[in-house]
Amino acid sequence: MTRLIDPGLERLRHMLREMATLSEQSVETAIKAYTESKPVTEEIFGWSEELNILHGQASDLAVELIARYQPLAGDLRYIESCFEISYGFSRLGRYAYDVAQIIDAFGDLSGCDSGEVTRMGEKVKKMVHIGVEAFFNEDTTAAMGLLQMDDEVDDAYRKHIHRIAVNKITNPRCTVAVTLAIRYLERMADHACYIGDSVVYVASGTRPSLR
Amino acid sequence: MEKLKLPTGVARRRRVVNLIFTALVFLAVLLAMVPLILILGEVVARGAPVISWKFLTSLPTPPEIAGGGIANALLGTFTMVGIATLISVPLGVGAGIFFSEWPESRLSFLSSFLNDVLAEFPSIVIGIFVYIVVVLTTKTFSALAGALALAIIMTPIIARTTEESLKLVPRTLREGSMALGVSRARTVTGVVISTGRAGLATGILLAIARAAGETAPLILTALGSTYYASGLMQPTAALSLLIYTYAISPFRDWQADAWGAALILVLLMLAINLLTKLTIGRKFAAVRAEI
Amino acid sequence: MTIMEMQKGGYGRQVEEKVEVDISPELDRGAAKLETRNLKAGFGTSEVLKGISLSFKEKSITAIMGPSGCGKTTFIRCLNRIHELTPGATVSGEVLLDGEDIYAPNVDSVAVRRKIGMIFQKPNPFPMMSVYDNAAAGLKLNGVRDRKVLDEVVERSLKMAFLWDEVKGELKKSGAALSGGQQQRLCIARALAVQPEVLLMDEPASALDPTATAKIEEAMAELKKDYTIVIVTHNLQQAARVSDYTAFLYLGELIEYGVTDRLFENPREQLTERYITGKFG
Known about the structure:
The complex is a heterotrimer of chains A (211), B (291) and C (281). By secondary structure, chain B is mainly α. Chain B contains 12 helices and no strands.
């Protein structure tokens, strides 16, 4: 039985799909560019802008659906999550852009040890992908898996900060670039985790991270 | 866009059929009115010349002697109908309330049925009954016997109209009253009856009009008289009795008087009906629309 | 703070605690003004309510909702013993007002109804009475004659029903001559005049336009400070707007009961979820 709100929900879902693709793309491109020291700022900037516009549209649509159809329970939670997730996607785009800007600012980083960044980058790419798929497939198990991965990322981040805090810095240029990149990657991981939260929230009304 | 107009052939045929049916219905009404109009016409034509103040205030005189009137008959009718009303209204309204408000009682179901039977009873049989029970035991024809016979006729009618009027009061009003913590009895007297009082009054007035015109039950109970009765336990005159006696008599002037009396009786009934329609009908029409 | 308010707090992780606001009133018996225990009811051989146990917290508004035919109207009519007035009606189980069963053998149902008042779906002012007499009806029909007392009660009740200002100059007008919304508020005033402790409302606004509905809901928000209110409604948004607790009935059974905010945002039962998202009923 098609309810009046269903076409609207479909449109919202479609918008988020678009945003998901764009943000995954941005994250992947940015990380790859960093490790290859390739300048991709303009491309990523374009995607980030588009993500902002889409976020605005998705929010408007979500508000419209609430005002018109006064959704409750599962529908209401879904629309709420859409607000949050669309914001999350726009942030992912923004952080991807921030990473791209590191390359712009610092130029060629091939001399630096980008192992940490590469490792964390892979994890983050995977997390974003898992989060997106979990949302569209309503897969709460996969979503819960993100918590552990986020813990690992947080751990790596804290270790890096600790290391540069206590040890003597031999190559400030590399260290700063890596630290910035890791900082942005850690935030991307957080947002991927929030997406996972939303999946669980839509299904059960509780948020795992807030336990 | 589809055409809104019918093809002319169909339209014309419809109009013709419409007209024919309207005409037929109109004709039916006229036909139904014919007896009423003819009767009224006859009565007015023959009765009007006889009516005068003297006619209304004099006692009857032997045939062929001028100056006779219907004074005692008027008084008799008013008296007997009056007493009958005093008896039948409390009984009838009470019974009607019981049938309407306590329908679950088996007594209610049974008596309601019996009530309907009594309402359709032949009035002559009621007259015979009262004759045996009252006239034979009191050894005299009387106004009281006549009033009793009329009361027996009026009570079931009043009971039925009361029951029906009260049943028209919506259940939600009763529930509204009881939901306030008002007892069932008080709900009936305070809300139900006051809401249905228009129907009650109408029923009573119509029963009165009916009783005023009854003849058969009075023949065996009041008998009729050419004098004023000096009490309730004597033969008493009544309009309907007078009409009957005079109409079948061979005397011209008596027959004329009968027409006069008939006109008075008809006017009386018209007056009661009009009174009902005009006062109670209009006053409560707005309220009936709300209900 | 409800879960919804925390959501709005943002996406940060700063909020540490999750506030549990779902108080199960069944456990909170001390404050239950009205309570049903295994209430069953029906007509003749058919059973409409299959055993409902619910409690109503004092000075709160509880909404009873469910699809047509679920028994919510029958349920509420059992709470003030109006159901038994219908020929053939059957009822069993207990309904406790302040701990006492109103269906106990020697209980005077008339007294019960003075304490538990009812507003009906279609406004039913007494058409033969004026606005004043309608408001005073509960008292007048029970023998109160003192004009001063009546005047005071009428004014107070009409004010509580948010009707005083609109009718104070026309108290002699027939009760039936008011607009639908005013009639319903008159019925509320009439019910309040006998000073009940509980107010039952059977879809009080379903026959009214949105403005009139809003006025009734405003009145309810005020009234809940002094009265325990139970409202039957098929309007989910209304239940969400006015009630503190909501019960969901389906085919004569209680499916779910809880704090309104929680129930409408995250119902426990699948059936409830399907009903409030419009997947049936």
